[in-house]
Design brief:
Layout: H1 2-11, H2 14-29, H3 36-47, H4 54-64, H5 67-71, H6 75-78, H7 86-108, H8 116-127, E1 134-140, E2 146-154, H9 164-174, E3 178-184, H10 194-208, E4 213-221, E5 224-227
Parallel strand pairs: 3-4
Antiparallel strand pairs: 1-2, 1-3, 4-5
Helix pairs in contact: 3-4, 3-7, 7-8, 9-10
């Protein structure tokens, strides 16, 4: 029996003890003490139960650059890495969805004007890493609190079709008194184009006739964000 126990100890994967120590460290010290690869390593524990996740986590960080970049990485590129399958991709999507849901919850609690920076952070987190252009509208009530937050259209890498009549229709349907327009530039550069400015003014003109205000049009990209209002373009 003694030999059998010794055999059991020898075949116990080395990473099992490491996982326990890492979890203990997390509970004791919190996430701030963890480099990106260690936090990612822990995230992969459930998706990859029978393999050392440290090399995979380090490879992901080396390939994409940061924890946030890994979470937002395209599925096709993630699958290029050995050990990354549907289970890992699902875990990464859950983390992103959870983070966005928390941010949405914070925005819903108070007027958007008093939580403008939180709104910007949410828009960047939701859209800056998307590979295609998305056009989002944040609908507000008379207290400037969020009624709805919806992606209205998705396009190509450099264009999203936006129909003014659909913006007007949806604004009326949800009972909005003001809106914020948001879209992303997959190129990374948030600089507004002439088409962005023209489209914004067209929407503003249509909504003005029914007393709905456009607070701003925010453009986000990996290199930052831009406000058409702050740039005095609208």
């Amino acid at each position: 029996m003694g030999e059998f126990k010794d055999s059991q100890k020898q075949i116990t994967p080395h990473y099992q003890g490491h996982r326990a120590r890492l979890r203990q460290k997390f509970r004791k010290n919190g996430a701030d003490t963890f480099p990106d690869y260690e936090l990612l390593e822990m995230l992969l524990f459930r998706a990859i139960p029978r393999r050392d996740t440290k090399p995979i986590a380090k490879e992901l960080i080396a390939k994409f650059g940061s924890f946030a970049d890994v979470i937002n990485a395209p599925e096709a590129r993630l699958k290029d890495i050995d050990g990354i399958g549907e289970a890992v991709i699902t875990e990464l999507k859950i983390v992103k969805a959870s983070a966005l849901r928390l941010m949405q919850g914070e925005l819903a609690k108070k007027p958007i004007i008093s939580s403008w920076q939180a709104m910007l952070k949410y828009c960047v987190a939701a859209m800056a890493h998307e590979q295609r252009e998305q056009f989002r509208i944040i609908f507000l009530d008379k207290r400037n609190q969020v009624i709805a937050d919806e992606v209205q259209a998705e396009g190509t890498v450099d264009h999203t079709p936006v129909y003014v009549r659909e913006v007007v229709k949806r604004s009326l349907e949800v009972g909005a008194t003001a809106i914020i327009l948001v879209h992303n530039h997959p190129s990374g550069d948030p600089t507004p184009s002439r088409a962005d400015i023209s489209m914004t003014k067209e929407i503003m003109g249509a909504l003005e006739k029914i007393n709905i205000l456009v607070h701003d049009h925010i453009i986000v990209g990996r290199d930052g964000h831009a406000s058409l209002k702050q740039l005095k373009l609208i």
